[in-house]
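If you are new to this repository, start here. Below is one unmodified record pulled from the training split, so you can see the exact layout before writing a loader.
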Amino acid sequence: MDQFTSPQIGLALRRLRKKHNLTQKDLANGICSQAEISKIESGTHSPTVDLLYALSIRLQVPLTIFLNQSSTLETIKIIDDELLTKFQNKKYDEIFQTSKKHIASLDKSEELRSLYSFYFHLSAFRLNKIDYRTCIIELQRLSNNYVKLYYSPKMLFRIKSSIATIYQENNNFRHSLKTYEDLLSLSFDSEELLVEKIRLLYNISKILVSLTQYERALNYVEEGIYLSLRFKDMSLLGQLFYQKGYVLEMSKSSLYKIKDAYQKSYTLFDILGMEEYKNILTTNNKVKILPYDKE
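And here is the target side for that same chain:
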């Protein structure tokens, strides 16, 4: 029997289910098993045409909406990648003008408009057109909108992380910490979101160091290291070991433990060719490529 194979089908199904306030069990009742709904939503199983048709009836939407949403999500991803690249290159004015134009032309219910709104407010803040408090208020409204309309964990994560970063930049560490810790309640049920969780743990640890809460900072960074090793993700492992060394140093831990963490971070930076990070370690005498005394 024919099957829909787009990886976006599961995300579209989950969004529609959440929009109708249905549990996976509610949606599956009389159609298939809850486990099958879970597999479709996680992207590990492709639904048949008949199954997707039955689900569309339960959700009171046409079958084609799944395909339309898949196409829309791909378009959003392309635009997001373009805007993100410009943002990383600090082309704030270009982003601001482009976003402003599209916000005016798109319907309020469209997710693409919300994406442009995200970049619009961030670029406006970077251009000093709005202050940081106004930016945070607008981003909070936007996150509420995503919860109600789209159920997009990744985008919620990005919005909340941006809020936490802005708080941190303005030395409002306690609000930054609370925003970051609230994010831990999200469901990290995909490999992509797992990487974001590791980044989140790293950021929380940095905030806690600013608040001189070294024991808690160490706990978060240790969890980040554990997840990185468990799921074989090296993207932030060097930074995590560096952060561990720094936390141990600030808390006046043993010299052996401090050097061990810094040495591991240096090794990872060396493997990944991250010369700038290696230079920071050697310039500040954090690590020596020599045997060191044991505790």
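Two things worth knowing about this chain: The chain is about 70% helix and 0% strand. Residues 90-170 form a domain with the Serine Threonine Protein Phosphatase 5, Tetratricopeptide repeat fold (CATH 1.25.40.10).
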